[in-house]
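Morning!

As promised:
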Amino acid sequence: MEPFVVLLPLFGALLAMPIGRMVSARAAELTTIAFVLMACLIAWVLFFDVAVGHNARTIQLFTWIGSGNFIADWAVKLDTMSVIMLVVITSVSSLVHIYSVGYMHDDASRPRFFAYLSLFTFAMLTLVTADNFIQLFFGWEGVGLASYLLIGFYHHKKSANDAAIKAFVVNRVGDFGFALGIMAIFFIFGSVGFEEVFQAVRTDAVVTPFNAADGAPISELTVGFLGLELHALTLIGILLFIGAMGKSAQFFLHTWLPDAMEGPTPVSALIHAATMVTAGVFLVCRCSIIYENAPDAATLVTFIGATTAFFAATVGLLQDDIKKVIAYSTCSQLGYMFFAAGVGSYGAAMFHLFTHAFFKALLFLGAGSVIHAVHHEQDMKKMGGVRHILPFTYAMMIIGTIAITGVGFPFLYDIFHFPVGTAGFASKDAIIEAAYAAGTEGRTGAYYAFAMGLIAAVFTSFYSWRLIFLTFHGKSRAPDHVMKHPHFPPNWMLLPLAVLAFGALFAGMLGYKSFVGDKAASFWGNSIYIAGDAHAGGESHAVEAYAAEATPPVEGDHAETPAIASAEDPAGAAHDEAEEHTEGYGEEGEGHHFPLWVLYAPLLAMLIGFGTAFAHYMRGSDPLRPGLLREGGILYSFLKNKWYVDEVYRFLFLNPSRRLGRILWKIGDGRIIDGLGPDGLSGLAGFGSRLIVRLQSGYIYHYAFAMLVGIGVILLIVRLGGAQ
Amino acid sequence: MQLGDNISFAFPEIWLAISAMALLMIGVFIDSKYHRFISFGAIFSIFVALFLVNFGTASENASLFNGAFVTDGFGQFSKSVIYVAAIFAIILSDRFMERERLARFEYPVLILLSVLGMSLMVASTDLISVYMGIELQSLALYILATFNRDSRRSTEAGLKYFVLGALSSGLMLYGMSLIYGFTGATTFEAIAAGADEANRIGLIFGMVFLISGLSFKVSAAPFHMWTPDVYEGSPTPVTAFFAAAPKFAAMAIFARVLVEAFPAATDALSDWQQVIVLVSILSMVVGAFSAIAQKNIKRLMAYSSIGHMGYALMGLAAGTSQGISSVLVYMTIYLIMTIGTFACILMMRRPEGMAENISDLSGLSQTRPGLAIMFSALMFSLAGIPIFLGFFAKLYVFMAAVNAGLFVLVVVGALSSVIATYYYLRVVKIIWMDEPAPEFERDAGPGVKGVAILSTVLIVAGIVVIMPFLNIAAEAAAATLF
Amino acid sequence: MTFAGIAFWAFAISTVTFGLLVILARNPVHSVLCLITTFISVAGLFVLMGAEYLAFLLIIVYVGAVAVLFLFVVMMLDVDFAELKSGFAEYLPYGVIVGVVLLVNIGLVVAAWQLPTDPQLAQPYLTGAEMTANLEGPNNAEALGMVLYTDYIHYFQIAGMVLLVAMIGAIILTFRERKGIKKQNPGDQAARKREDAVEVVSVQTGKGI
């Protein structure tokens, strides 16, 4: 059954085009939906089996590449991390598939669209079920390909093609780092399997890189890279993170994501919000054990993540395109996830990934519904008052917004022992608190992350509500015929919204205990690093034992834990400690002690953002007035132009490389390579041909003469050349 | 008494001689409209010879007439290939000769006699019999080239071939006489035994002249000049025959003379190796460059064959058993390709006559898709593009040359094959991309069509169908020389 | 110097001289005549070597047939050799270069040629004693006959085939069956019957046929 969760979408992708051609587009849509839904069903079954039932396992399908030491299997690795991803991917994918039936109803090449969607789903599932870096890389590139195809789906639009190429090229930069990282891993560990590598890191095993005479414990090992002697794990961590930065649109490599909004909106929801862009977070969490042993790399992750969270939020403040606002919001939220991972709270990162998938997909699909209604207009300046047309969508968008801005009731925590509030509230607060906690532990960059996270939360709230107010409230600024004849969303589109809204509201509360709460250790099992359990030698073993024997954790298993822990004494002790640590999160009186303001700060930030947005966009006659910043000001331009990142890149990389390319093309290729190579050779060939043909005069005596000359020359050469 | 030798070893040759004479007599006395009977008779007698070579006493090893005639694996392999090529040449000529009003009973008889010459030639280990065999086959070929005696081009071709052939024979004889003069022997074995430091230079000179004469026969540069004119002027089936069997025979005796009379054991290898390397390089370069400018498909094939001889000589230059076996493989495959190509060329006929220009092929893919596919496959194979047989032929000689350390040769070979690819692919391009020319007639006859299809199938599927057997057979044949 | 010695030098000098004259003579007829003289000189050398059969063969075949044929051709075709040689000067430099290269090369070979040290073998011509000694055995023609059909049967047969091919070639290239020419056919003549030729008509008086 397990392989089918991955393969079913592939079948859908392969069948969609032929069915679309032979039967009908509708048949193709239904086929892919059926396959993805089946995959989704299996994913949920697996989720309860693996994550809840603690039945982590890896199914080896076949050896994909076997070349000496280099072995890459094709496997379906099922542990808590991958099943969470499976659930997220297949659920959102199913909903997006369904939604697309309505959204794309007037598009001529629907079968192609659905084929791409399913192909993407397959690649993403391959990525998350990998048990080695090579399969992961395959999925990584597969989703990149699908993303490219889908961004450029409207291939008659130049901007779409450009955006697709941009996405692909920017991702190349990241992928190059990723590939180097994989090579470094193979170089150092002699294996690309997760289990082998992580086990070596966990036990601080002695490893011998390929060129080294003798090995060293991994924690002390250094390798030469670009002439520098670098700590091996730090190097690997940074290289892998560069890959993650590209895929997850982190600062410096984020420029493709806003442009990727050229693709159809369901694509934005699925790929550029819920799933693909989180692959980087997934990678970092998957390699959590590496980052925990490479503090410098983790600091980099923290720093980049926090900066991205802040940066993207600031840019989101002034965007007019409804999808770009959400795109920057995605970028910003991904930043949250990364700095959560960077400060060591991988559970919180995954938790936010999980909840974010719901509310961000909801926001995108809701925005898609709006765009669909107003005749594919994306500029919020030309919307307004849409709530009268789309009351249901309006409600859904409100839910999405309160989820992303993190509306919740921190004071109820003491009563219910879990955060009462929307999904975003639960996960984002967990991240911010984790950052604060890491800061108190003296983790580098954690306070920076904490501060950035809070500021970004203010901005998040502002731009999210700004979106709501500009789009749904006020007077309509759309042309009359649009408002008179809007496209009402069909039920195909509304149903997914409702499902996602449910997730956006309750996913946080339902998942809290497992992801970051007191059950986290048992929930995650061995799949990610949980603070406090890493450095104990036999710990992983203990956790496995624990995971295998624990009764279903739904009832709570505190009673049993000590018993098992006592069976394996040293490990058990460490485990107890882990339990305590995780319980400490957010809970006063145990473990960490958060000042009250830390707990309330996110809520406060949200309220500030909301209040400002409300003040500027609900009150007053002109909803388009510049707001906080004066139009034309330096800061305004700075933000409006997205910190000039694109321009800087254009200046630093694009123009020089274009010039270089021009030189290489005109002179290097045209004159030198072509000139000496193909053109020169063909010219030479033509010349030689004419020459030899001229010798072929047709006169016998010329021929005879040539023979005699030939003999003379050969004799001379033999005399001079060899025969002494 | 040499007559006491068991002449049963020479049965194939005796049979060929007798049947040639018998067919000649029959041909004289029957009505000229039964000329096909003679063709069938010739094919039959070559078949019988083929059988005798492989299954009679002639398949055993023996040496007759003081080494003037030997039977061994090398000769057996060579003769078999030559016989098969001759059979195809007769088949190819059938319909053509009729239409061109050339159908005469002497044609198959002359082919038989020339095959006899080749057969004797490749079985020689004595300079005199080598020369006589070469003359016998050449004389028949001169006449065949002139067979269309009312055509100026044909007679010109024959005359050129004859005069230049006589010159090359003179050079060869001069070389042989030098060799005889310095070693006092004409048999290969005795020449090899008689070589020493004192007569080395004289021997080398004799060898160079001998190589020149043989190079003329295989049309290797700089002794290739006759080839394009003769190929173009001769009747097409005769050209097909020229390009196939005599080339193989000459290459075979080339290899036998050099390996047996100037073996590596006497240090002569390094002397002739450099000459062969030179001739090989020149041939490849000439073949590659001059074919580019050709407009006539037969001239193109002439230059193509010059180039291909360069590649075959590359294997010979290696001088090893592997090298000789690669030569045999190369020549066999070349033979298949060239016969197939000429079969296709023979199908290029319009009501006004044979079409021989490359431009006549334009748009063939639309008028005659089957022929177009065959032509293209053959061109790909001649260019040495993988999966086609021609690629493996090149691969083997390159491997042999690399193992012998002849890297310069290999590099030149690779480069010239790149250039050569151009004109082969140009033909393919004209066939598939250009505007269609008037359609060819479809009455080429079953023989020509069959040969074309057979050789196309062989070069496409050859890697599984014949390559394994060919390789083993060639290796076994080459081993008998060492 | 014996008589044989004097004769050898005379024939040798005559061979080389007339050989040169063959290619130097302006008049082609003179060339052919010089060629004939060269053949005769060579025949004399053969006789000196005791190969009288070859000598006579040379005179009969080459002088009697080949050279005379040459003479016929030269006289019948009336080729203007002066015209043929008109381009001579143009190609002379190239020809000289190639010729010199070949000559130098061959000269090197000759220079490297070590004459046999055995004085008897080093002597270029046979002594009278050796010539007379041969009279004991089978004579020249006989000796040739002894090996021609035994040791050299192979070559002999191939030569036969070569001649056959030459004959066929000559016929193919030149023989034409002409239609409409008057020629005698003895077979037809012999097979002629009275009925075909003669018709008996009873002529009635006073009327014509």
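Chain A has 30 helices and eight strands.

Hope this helps with the figure draft.
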